Every structure is written in structure tokens, then in C-alpha cells.
Amino acid sequence: MGFTHDALGAALAAINISTRLSSSAGPAVYEATARMQTLGDVEGTIAAARAEVSSENAANTAAARFAYRLSGDPTGDVVVVSIAAETPQTSAMRGYAQMERTMQWVDGDWRMQVPLSRPQFVTVIDGFAPLGGPGA
After folding, report:
1. For residue 66, what is the enclosing H or E element?
2. Are residues 88 and 97 in contact, defined by beta-carbon separation less than 8 angstroms?
3. Could you give the 3-state DSSP secondary structure of residue 92?
4. 13, 42, 94, 108: which is deepest, by most CB within 10 A?
């Protein structure tokens, strides 16, 4: 919570909220995050996190770098944030995990529309701005 009402704030909110909605964050985190920082099918999102099972080692899915691109006016009420995450797994395949997150400005903070779309593997992220990490 406490994200700024601009492009960077929307991007940081999208990344942080998405990360906290994962089963790997644990029920105390993903349930609180879903209830306080999302709009839409909150209970379905919590149920999906509870049921989430991954056969992949967590170290292979942790992002080392992020990049983002926005559609819409970040000083308005709704934007779509495209996030590209480079993980050891995607880097080995010479690409990125890309996801789209719809963000809405509500009561002085960004909230994420749920349910979430699944990440897609992409090899090109033209038009994305780097968001920290080594070499960013």
C-alpha cells in the first residue's frame, strides 16, 4: 500500500501485489493482499492461491529484473500495466515472463483487478522501461 499515483507507482503496485498473491507468499500474506489490494473475484483469487502447486524450484521463478509498459493515463483512474520479468528459467530460454495487470486508483492507492491472467513467455519487450536489477 502507499503507491504513488503515477506510472512508476502503478508499475510497482502491479509487481508487488502480483508477488504477494502467490501461494509462495503464504496464506497470511496472499489472503490479506487479496482482501485489501484487489477488486473483483477476491475469494476466487484466494482459492486459486490455496490450490496453486508448482513443480518448479522457487529459485528458478524469482525475478532478477523487471521491466514495464503502461497503457492509459497513470494520473487517471485505470491503467493496464504490462510487466516483463526475467527469471533464471526465462533467461535460460532467452526471454521473459510477461503479464498484464489492470490497476485501478481507489481511495488513494492502486488496486489490482482479479482474477489474474497467467504469464506468457515472450522474447521481445520493445517499449518496456527497465525497473532496476543488475544491468537495468
Report:
1. strand 65-71
2. no
3. helix
4. 13
CA 134 to the chain's CA centroid: 19
Cell for 38?
484487489
DSSP string, 8-62: HHHHHHHHHHHHHTSGGG-HHHHHHHHHHHEEE-HHHHHHHHHH----S-HHHHS
User: Among all chains, which residue has been given the C-alpha cell 526471454?
Assistant: 95
21: cell is 498473491
Cα distance between residue 5 and residue 77, in whole Å: 9
Q: Which residues, other chains included, contact 34 with Cβ-Cβ below 8 Å and sequence gap of 6+?
A: 21, 42, 45, 46, 49, 114
Question: Which pTM value belongs to this model?
Answer: 0.87
Nearest of 131, 134, 123 to residue 90 by alpha carbon: 123
Predicted confidence band of residue 59 (pLDDT cuts 50, 70, 90): low
C-alpha cell belonging to residue 57: 524450484
CB 56 within 8 A of CB 97: no
